[in-house]
Amino acid sequence: MPISFFIGGDLVNDDGIKYLAMAIVFQAVQDYKKALKHNDKVEIHNLEKWFRGNKYKTLCSIDGDYLIKKIKEVMKKWD
């Protein structure tokens, strides 16, 4: 479903909508990193479920499982 479905208009190409979608995904990535760092199993589970869900897929074209894998790789390098 395009983002415009949720806001009731034909704004899929609007830069503001794209930046908002990027900001939402960016914040989820930051939250996931923090959850991994603190071994917060509930938050990790919730975010992994979100990355694999339809809301994430509406906002981002990067495969959720791929993103999870890459974030975990980065976090291992920082340990």
Features:
about 80 residues; mainly alpha; about 75% helix; globular
Protein architecture, described:
It is a single chain. With 79 residues, this protein is mainly α. The chain is 76% helix and 0% strand. It has five helices and no strands. It has helices at 3-7, 15-37, 41-51, 54-59, 64-78. Helix 2 (15-37) packs antiparallel against helix 3 (41-51).
Distance between the termini: 38 Å
- Provide mean pLDDT, rounded: 87
- Report the uncertain regions: none
Tally of extended strands?
Answer: 0
DSSP strand content = under 5%
Overall helicity: over 70%
Which sequence of SSEs, written as H and E, runs from N to C?
HHHHH
Overall spatial form: globular
**Discrete helix count:** 5
Largest sheet: none
- Whole-angstrom Rg: 14 Å
Q: Summary?
A:
This protein has helices at residues 3-7, 15-37, 41-51, 54-59, 64-78. The protein is mostly helical and 79 residues long. The chain is globular and about 40 Å long.
Which helices and strands appear, and what pairs or packs with what?
Elements: H1 3-7, H2 15-37, H3 41-51, H4 54-59, H5 64-78
Helix pairs in contact: 2-3
